[in-house]
Amino acid sequence: QVQLVDAGGGLVQAGGSLRLSCAASGRTSSSYAVAWFRQAPGKEREFVSSSSRSGSNTYYADAVKGRFTVSRDNAKNTVYLQMNSLKPEDTAVYYCAAEDWNTAYFRDYARTSWYTYWGQGTQVTVSS
Question: 62-65 — which CB contacts under 8 Å span 24+ positions?
Answer without folding.
Answer: 63/89, 64/90
